[in-house]
């Protein structure tokens, strides 16, 4: 198993869609990393990407690709395949970087974490939005104590017409595990808890709605790479209220479709005992840097300001961090077993259960 920067790291990428292509391109920017395998069902795209990136090992079967001599693999496929592929790779002693969400539910996520611990290998999940430069700048402000003790926060990712692959695997409860709460809401949940310092979530109360998708409205026009056809079985909007250890609360909203501004919105607002902050990213993931405002006072007067931030490096940073952990050796591997992503999955499970049973769920 390659663990030092002097040894080449042999990796494979499973999945040829947008996410898989981000992983593939990122690996090729890192010295000492060799992409030796690429797997996907789209024959023409497999040939095109293989030729473009000089990947000799091309497979239409992920099982066959895992037969290569691999140090690590990226899993960028529909959610229902995350657990079986990751567990199979980990059982072979291969480090795994999975796209979000970690799995369809907490049970699958727990099985993945167990496999990582059993194998003594890394299991990371691609939470790329916490690597945004504007979120990083806000994290520094909160950590420095400038806002005092945060006691209320709200965060969202909202679209006007952004159901990905309407009536594809994305809208199948069995294949996707959920709608926007599981798809883009997990990003919101991740960066919100990250900004707040990873407080323990004590209880969740949530509601979900499916008002536009079942009527064929709100589709993004995007075609899912997977050819699966499914009726609309998930929500198109969700809202979850989280009670946090220490008395703070967090409101999460995730919407694929709704009659709102045409531009996607990703945002985070926090109120603290000594100040507050608001990050608004109009255009969401398509906007490199959002507007970050900080609200404080000095000598009894408002001392508000807008903070400049640099663009983040998204999947490039995710992949670089993954490679760095692998190269750091077994002591670092044990700290990257997928536990954080498992906690995110358990919170989302609780939110769906709350919406179904119309009551608050204790964690």
Class inferred from helices and paired strands: alpha/beta
Element-level helix/strand string: EHEHEHEHEHEHEHHHEEEEEEEEEHHHE
Fraction of helical residues: 25-40%
Biggest beta sheet attributes: 9 strands, mixed
Please list the strands of the largest sheet in the order they lie side by side.
16-13-12-11-7-10-9-8-17
**Fraction of residues in β-strands:** 15-25%
**What is the residue-averaged pLDDT?**
95
- Residue runs with pLDDT of under 50 for 5 or more positions: none
Number of strands: 17
> What is the total domain count?
2
CATH superfamily grouping of the largest domain? Dihydrodipicolinate Reductase, domain 2
CATH architecture of the largest domain: 2-Layer Sandwich
In DSSP terms, counting alpha (H) and pi (I) runs of 4 or more, how many helices? Answer: 12
Report the span from N to C terminus. Answer: 38 Å
Shape: globular
CATH class value of the largest domain: Alpha Beta
Radius of gyration: 21 Å
CATH topology of the largest domain: Dihydrodipicolinate Reductase, domain 2
InterPro entries: Gfo/Idh/MocA-like_OxRdtase_N, Gfo/Idh/MocA_oxidrdct_glycsds, GFO_IDH_MocA-like_dom, NAD(P)-bd_dom_sf
GO molecular function: nucleotide binding; oxidoreductase activity
Keywords: Oxidoreductase
